Amino acid sequence: KMEKKFKKCNYLSFNHDYSCFSVATSSGFKIYNSSPLKLIVERDLEGSLEMASMLYRCNIVGLVGGGTYPKYSPNKLILWDDLLSKVTGEITHISKIVCFKLRKDIIAVSLEEKVMVYNMTDLELIRSHETRENTFGVLSLNTKGEEPILAMLGIKRGFAKVAFVKSNKEVDIEC
Questions:
Q1: Keyword annotations for this protein (predicted)?
Q2: How remote is the C-alpha of 41 from its chain's centroid?
Q3: Is omega for the bond preceding 74 within 30 degrees of 0, making it cis?
Q4: pLDDT tens-digit readout, 109-142
């Protein structure tokens, strides 16, 4: 009797309006409609993913490799176009990606001691922010409004940093 091999769930992420959520698995990714709960996309990429997150409710999905047999390097953010079923962009770092957030105009990537901010259209680096050690990927990004606002760990223990991307302002707040 053959035993069914179960896929491992490595990451779960709701989209911006919570209408869908993505699942990074040991063999690719899945996207579910939230209500009614229904599987709408399943992609077997023949390799494991550490993270998967969709941009709003469109065909762009951010992917980071990891797990037992990684499809991509854990230091590379892949932009996957599910309509075209192919990679349409990638950003490579010298260290492991611990978190990323997508917005229509920017991408924020958290490394263990830095947050990098990129322009969504051309993937050019806009700026970077130093943080203290952040192995858990503590990072948040607003999804509405003209001004992208990031919240991340500060440099000093017990502080968070709020960064206003367009106006290039940073404010440290005590936790």
A1: Repeat, WD repeat
A2: 18
A3: no
A4: 999 999 999 999 999 999 999 999 999 989 999 9
Please indicate, yes or no, whether residues 14 and 75 belong to a single structural domain of this protein: yes
Q: What are phi and psi of 86, to 5 degrees?
A: -155, 165
Name the strands in the sheet holding 169-174, side by side, starting at the edge strand that comes first in the sequence. 139-141, 149-153, 159-164, 169-174
CA 16 from centroid of its chain's CA atoms: 12
Q: Which of 97, 122, 142 is the last residue of a domain?
A: 97
Q: Please state the pTM of the whole predicted model.
A: 0.89
Scanning the structure block, which residue is given the tokens 């063999």?
A: 27
Query: Going by C-beta distance under 8 Å and a sequence separation of 6 or more, which residues neighbour residue 144?
Result: none
For residue 28, the enclosing domain spans 1-97
- Structure tokens, 139: 């990072």
pLDDT at 31: 96
Pairing of strands 49-54, 76-81: unpaired
* 110 in Cβ contact with 100 (< 8 Å): yes
pLDDT level of residue 5 (50, 70, 90 thresholds): low
In a domain, 142, yes or no: yes
